[in-house]
Amino acid sequence: MNTKIISGTRKSVIADTFYRMVQVTHSQKWLFEMVKKIQNQKSPWDSMYTATLEGLIKQLGATKVNIYIFNKKSRLLKLVLCAGKVKNTELEEKKNRIFKVMSNGGDSSIITYDRDNPANSYFTKARRIPGNEYKWLKNAIQTAVPTHKVYTNTKTKDEMPFILIPFNIDARKVLIVKVRHADLKKMDENALQEFNLISDSLISQVRNNLLTSLIDLNMQEFPYTEAKRIPKRGTSVSLLGVNDEVVLEKINQLKGLTDSFHIDVLDGHYVPDCKVFDMHGETIQKDFFPYVSAQLIKRIRESYDGLLDAHFMAVDSKQYIIEYAEAGVDIITISYSDDLSTLRQNINLIKNLGRLAGVAIKPETTFEDIKELLHEIDLVLVMTVPPGKGGQSFDFKMLDKISQLREYIEKNNLNVSIEVDGGINTLTGRHALKAGANLLVSGTAIVNSPDPKDTIKHILDTK
Questions:
Q1: Residue 455 has pLDDT above 70, yes or no
Q2: How many domains does the structure of the chain reveal?
Q3: Does residue 228 form part of some domain?
Q4: Rounded CA gap, 152 and 197, in Å?
Q5: Are residues 315 and 453 in the same domain?
Q6: DSSP letter, residue 189
Q7: pTM of the predicted model as reported, rounded to 2 decimal places
Q8: Which residues make Cβ contacts (< 8 Å) with residue 20, sequence separation at least 6?
Q9: Contacts of 104 (CB under 8 A, 6+ apart)
Q10: Where are the alpha helices (DSSP H) in 102-188?
Q11: Of 200, 259, 264, 378, which is the active-site residue?
Q12: Looking at residue 97, what is its pLDDT?
């Protein structure tokens, strides 16, 4: 099989690939609900069916989708799922090969094939692939990240053009999705970019569900890195509002002065107006979420090996946990929710990934709300301001809550750190520390300081 690239999205159009989640515009409101539906499936295989049949085929108009798992060591390729659109008049003819049928409206249906045994549901027999049989496979396993290219088979003229969506499952296995669409050749650059990004977004949820299942069963070959310990007293410089282009410069400037860096990850929904603000309160225009991305964190890790502390301001944190753990975050803090069952599942996932688990509480969240969870986490993040905007003033009423937390932690002999974020400066820092905090998040006061070393010294001075 020979393949050639017939079209490719330019690097400048991909938006640095840092922001893999597509902006949920008025024409794409279905995407956010679809992502949640995929995440809520009981098994990774159910999420695979949902993403493929309802997302890629029904919503995006893909003609056929093949999902493979390839073992790079054994060279075995396993077809996990094969689905596509067919005319209703063809259903009778194909009935012996069909596993599931879903109406697509009009004169077509969406079907799932199972070539070996429909009763055996999900897997076909794996086969070893000779080196030159599938050129597209070689390209997919070399990168194992979405490349946003369109391919066509030069030997089989009637085969539709396709894109490849590869994701590493572990050190050996790669999940590869081959998506055919009749109109790929006709799409302009913007439409092609949108198709690729939405496809990536859907399949990344399948991959995350698959990894979560393997991690929970302790079956994964996941790189386990013990998270660095939290200091008894220290600062974490917030990168909220620091422009992507200068973030590495700021880290190199401050990494010898601070104990860690604090990264806020916004999904565009948890903060209702979907805005991000810089250090001066001005709106930062962001076309893609999350902000900050896992890809940017990987870049940070190339020059900084200290403590990285991520706070997910997300409606559903699960979709980010695995990706950001892989990128190199040490502390993963998720937002408190009344849905304690889901909250505990996410806490366990973070711990199984070898990371420290934190829970963030907003100003209106009470001590009683969070009390029992203190026995299950490594860190509680006390927000003294509403989330999502840098440079806000410290709410001194939060000091009582910090004192309550410290008293309960000491009384129950818990190894839980108290982090405080919001309005921390040379005046408020000492009050937070005296109340019982041990890690202070500060962005504006340190990043905009003419002498960051002196500012950090005074923030930590309790005299």
A1: yes
A2: 2
A3: no
A4: 19
A5: yes
A6: H
A7: 0.62
A8: 146, 197, 200, 201, 204, 288, 293, 294, 295
A9: 57, 58, 85, 110
A10: 135-143
A11: 264
A12: 65
pLDDT: is 73 or 345 the higher one? Answer: 345
What is the domain range of residue 395? Answer: 234-459
Q: Which H helix or E strand runs over 238?
A: strand 234-238
* 106: number of Cβ within 10 Å: 8
Phi-psi region of 176 (alpha: psi -120 to 50; beta: other; left: phi over 0): beta
* 430 token code pair: 């000492």
Instruction: Look at residue 229 and tell me if it is in a domain.
Output: no
Mean pLDDT of the chain: 77
Alpha carbon distance 445, 423 (integer Å): 8
Percent of the chain with pLDDT over 90: 22
What's the rounded Cα separation, in Å, for the pair 308 and 84? Answer: 43
Q: Cα separations (Å) of 287 from 14, 25, 82, 281, 313?
A: 11, 10, 33, 18, 17
Helices (H), 53-188: 91-94, 135-143
Instruction: Please list, in sequence order, all residues whose beta carbon lies within 8 angstroms of the beta carbon of residue 92, skipping any fewer than 6 positions away.
Output: none
Query: Mean pLDDT highest for which of 14-23, 32-41, 60-69, 191-200?
Result: 60-69
Cβ proximity of 277 and 309 under 8 Å? no
Concerning whether 264 is annotated as a catalytic residue, the answer is yes
Instruction: Assess whether 292 and 185 both reside in one domain.
Output: no
The reply to whether 421 belongs to the active site is yes
Across the strands, what pairs with 442?
Answer: 237
Model confidence over 90-114: pLDDT tens digits?
A: 877 776 666 677 777 778 888 887 5
Q: In 3-state terms, the chain is what percent helix, strand and coil (to 5)?
A: 35, 25, 40
Higher model confidence: residue 258 or residue 89? 258
Task: Give the CA radius of gyration of the chain.
Answer: 24
Distance (Å, rounded) from C-alpha 389 to C-alpha 362? 13
Q: In 113-262, which residue ranges form alpha helices assigned H by DSSP?
A: 135-143, 189-216, 247-254
Write the single-letter amino acid at 317. Answer: S
